[in-house]
Write a structure and sequence with these properties.
The chain has 283 residues and is of the alpha/beta class. It contains eleven helices and nine strands. α7 links the parallel β5 and β6. α2 runs antiparallel to α11, α4 packs parallel to α6 and α8 packs parallel to α9.
Length: 283
């Protein structure tokens, strides 16, 4: 059995207020490309006014060495303009689109209503088909939200059904603010994987130091085989709450699966070098 690990340096970097030099980003991501991750979430084509850290995504992409890696590249986009730009690059395999089940968060994150975002998801899916890309749809606030919007598992199931109608094949359930617990993780993954066996479901979990293992264990036990992480848990969504719960540390994900003798395709020597380099990038 093999699980896919998606490393998210983009998610880590965008949480920092100071601008990380372009050459530093390129060097770090090139190191990550040697580790064996299934996918690298390397950057985003979004407004530099909204997320200044990502203003050099094109330059970073052009500096990456993809000659000796099996890792695929994923770029986050939030509107049609960004999707059209990302689709032009043959190096990019996946376009990631955040679609929130919370109306408040969707407006806050992409300045768009849920209805308009559904129409945009359809446009991006069509764009991906034309350019030989795949859409990774992130269901943000999949496990609850702090804004007072109605949340229940039926809402998550409803929007999964709508994405299935569009032909989306990869959906990542995003615990944007770290509120997921074993009960909700188990219910959602078990139910959705059974109802939509043709969709690949992923876990983009945020966590606190004391409860990371129960989240990974429950998601895996419930059938999830795709896990997002960020080395050392750096970063988080800048459009979420002010007090951010960190990203799921990649080293925890790897350690968990090593303990359970599950294949991750990770080169541990290259991974440890990446951890050391991350401390120079982010600290």
């Amino acid at each position: 059995m093999t699980v896919k690990i998606i490393e998210c340096p983009r998610d880590a970097m965008q949480g920092f207020a100071h601008f990380i030099p372009t050459e530093t980003k390129i060097s770090y991501i090139n190191q990550l490309l040697r580790v064996g991750f299934d996918t690298i979430d390397f950057g985003s084509f979004v407004s530099s006014k909204v997320i200044p850290q990502m203003q050099d995504t094109t330059e970073v992409l052009n500096g990456l060495d993809l000659t000796d890696t099996h890792s695929k590249l994923l770029a986050i986009i939030a509107n049609r303009k960004g999707a059209e730009l990302a689709a032009q690059f043959p190096q990019i395999s996946y376009l990631g689109f955040p679609f929130s089940v919370s109306e408040t968060f969707q407006l806050r994150n992409t300045n768009s209503t849920i209805h308009a975002s559904l129409e945009l998801a359809e446009q991006i899916q069509e764009l991906c088909a034309r350019h030989n890309k795949k859409l990774v749809l992130y269901l943000s606030m999949a496990f609850g939200n702090p804004y007072g919007d109605v949340w229940n598992v039926e809402i998550v199931e409803h929007w999964t059904t709508e994405m299935d109608k569009l032909g989306v094949k990869i959906i990542s359930l995003s615990d944007t603010i770290g509120v997921a617990d074993p009960s909700s993780i188990s219910y959602l993954f078990n139910g959705l994987i059974q109802a939509f066996p043709h969709i690949e479901f992923g876990a983009h979990l945020h966590t606190q130091p004391h409860n990371w293992k129960e989240k990974i264990h429950t998601a895996f036990s419930s059938g999830c085989r795709r896990f997002d992480g960020a080395i050392k848990g750096f970063g988080g969504c800048p459009m979420a709450a002010d007090e951010l719960t960190g990203n799921m540390p990649t080293e925890h994900i790897i350690n968990y699966f090593q303990e359970h003798e599950v294949n991750t395709n990770i080169d541990m020597e290259a991974f440890n070098l990446s951890v050391n380099r991350s401390l120079r990038v982010f600290v």
